């Protein structure tokens, strides 16, 4: 009876989660059969995702509340983060990525068991959606859909070989002249 605002397949492909404008979260099997697992959060769902082993479910609401649930139907933890738009569970670790898009937009990395904040990436624009390329729960590349109709790319810059090494550096690029191919 309300608009679906979130749909995700589990990592194994065995389950589907849906969330709606009224705050209802339902679990379905891969054939679309309701699994008698439902949560009523009474606020619009903006993001949902399954953990790596399909043991837990993370849900974020329009007011910024982050919830985790077990697939047996019990609530595990909750945390208020501000105006949140999306949530994704790490592919290969117990970390949750939450896109916060209020007056200080950022991507927050949270430990999925303790809800301690591990790190965050401050963003330049209000953001609506994101994709993460990660390595063992660490962000390697971050792509963000902004409210200005652009895709922003955040990543770890690579430093040239020899950067910061000792030696004379006439062009001031922090690479000694004996290693610098483009020495001016």
Q: How does this model look, in words?
A:
The protein has 184 residues and is mostly beta strands. 0% of the residues lie in helices and 52% in strands. It is built from no helices and 15 strands. The strands form four sheets. The chain has a four-stranded antiparallel β-sheet with strand order 1-2-3-4, with no helix packed on it. The chain has a four-stranded antiparallel β-sheet with strand order 5-6-7-8, with no helix packed on it. The chain starts with a strand and ends in a 29-residue tail after the last strand.
What is the number of beta strands?
15
Binned strand content = over 45%
User: Helical amount among residues, as a percent range?
Assistant: under 10%
- Overall shape: it is elongated
Q: What is the residue-mean pLDDT, rounded to a whole number?
A: 87
Question: What strand line-up does the widest sheet have?
Answer: 1-2-3-4
């Amino acid at each position: 009876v309300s608009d679906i605002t979130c749909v995700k397949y589990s990592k194994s492909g065995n389950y589907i989660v849906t969330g709606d404008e009224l705050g209802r979260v339902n679990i379905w099997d891969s054939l679309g059969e309701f699994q008698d697992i439902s949560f009523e959060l009474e606020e619009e769902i903006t993001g949902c995702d399954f953990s790596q082993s399909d043991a837990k479910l993370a849900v974020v609401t329009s007011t910024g509340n982050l919830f985790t649930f077990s697939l047996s139907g019990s609530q595990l933890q909750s945390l208020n983060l501000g105006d949140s738009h999306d949530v994704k569970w790490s592919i290969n670790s117990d970390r949750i990525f939450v896109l916060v898009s209020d007056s200080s937009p950022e991507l927050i990395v949270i430990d999925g068991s303790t809800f301690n904040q591990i790190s965050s990436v401050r963003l330049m624009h209000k953001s609506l959606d994101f994709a993460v390329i990660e390595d063992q729960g660490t962000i390697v590349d971050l792509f963000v859909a902004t409210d200005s109709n652009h895709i922003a790319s955040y990543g770890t810059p690579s430093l040239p070989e020899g950067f910061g090494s000792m030696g004379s550096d006439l062009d001031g690029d922090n690479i000694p002249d004996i290693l610098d191919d483009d020495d001016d």
